[in-house]
Amino acid sequence: MKPHIYFNSNIDSPDEWKAALSQHFPDMKYSVGEVCEDPESVDVALVWKLPNRGLSDFKNLKAVLSLGAGINQLDPEKLPRNVPLARLVDDSLTQTMIEYAKAATFRYHRKFHLFERQSREAQWTFLPATLARDTVVGVLGLGELGGAIAKSLAEEGFDVAGWSRTPKHVDAIATYSGKDGLSDMLACTDIVINVLPLTDDTRSILNLEFFVQCKRGACIINMGRGHHLVDADLLAAIDAGQIQAATLDVATVEPLPPAHPFWGHPAILVTPHVAGISTPETAAITVAQNIRRALNGEELAQQVDISRGY
Ligand code: NDP
Ligand code: OXD
């Protein structure tokens, strides 16, 4: 196979991707950047962002493959209709998301966020530890990433619950779905981890109404998208003592602007969208499978249902 692959991203290395993809397609043609010289011969677009002009000149495009697990960064107006879109699944992305979720969860579970504060204030105050089985972790989203995170936290001994759009059965995890299911789960959850995709239904889901339903003193870990969170509502919920602390890997504007009240807030830890890191070498395996599928006219793996938004 000699696919013509068009690559566009402001955050991924085109050279590393070229090296990884050429292991699978040694004779491929590879075009990079905003302007593609021969768009009509492109088979597959591999993109984090769409080029400003969109893909309308790419008359023979067989697939758009996202360089992210999320696809909300792709302007729907510029996405060609009738061309299938797939999101990224990558072992290294999943593994790093699991590590981040575990690190943030253990930090709250073992009260490191409080000891960090005490340490800065030269305060030697004993705070007792609890067992993992007595800490309830609720995961919003039980897909590729949320499902793997929930499973790995259950393996660490936490009491894990998970929420999805459709009902699910997952071994060792209490599962919930729908609006009522969310209220039931939040009422008993100590640490909430958000790994939802950003859709019309999930935008601003982490709002005051949500925080009020949480167990008093719950901690929030947002690994989804910045637009899931209403920033002012989080600050109000922390001020009211309803939410104890938050770890935020994503922001509505990235980088988070210097004057944003999250910076320096004693109850908030900000990380610069580092939770999940995909590696071209491993990600190219699933991408190459999808390129073959596209060239053979087969349905893509991890194909996005545009009407559902993920
Ligand atoms: P998936 O599509 O595999 O899973 C999405 C999950 O969310 C599914 O369980 C789905 O339910 C659930 N869901 C969707 N809409 C709703 C809703 N309205 N109510 C309840 N549940 C809902 O996605 P991934 O797991 O691969 O990725 C999830 C997100 O993680 C990405 O979209 C991105 O935003 C974020 N991400 C963040 C990264 C970071 O570095 N911070 C890195 C990678 C991803 P159902 O199972 O019923 O379909
Ligand atoms: C992704 C991300 O969606 O990095 O993969 O956020």
UniProtKB/TrEMBL annotation:
D-isomer specific 2-hydroxyacid dehydrogenase NAD-binding domain ranges (all copies): 106-275
InterPro entries in alphabetical order: D-isomer_DH_CS, D-isomer_DH_NAD-bd, NAD(P)-bd_dom_sf
GO molecular function: glyoxylate reductase (NADPH) activity; hydroxypyruvate reductase [NAD(P)H] activity
Residues spanning the signal sequence: none
EC nos: 1.1.1.79, 1.1.1.81
CDD domains referenced in this protein's UniProt entry, alphabetically: GDH_like_2
Enzyme superclass (EC): oxidoreductase
Keywords for this protein: NAD, Oxidoreductase
Record's protein name: Glyoxylate/hydroxypyruvate reductase A
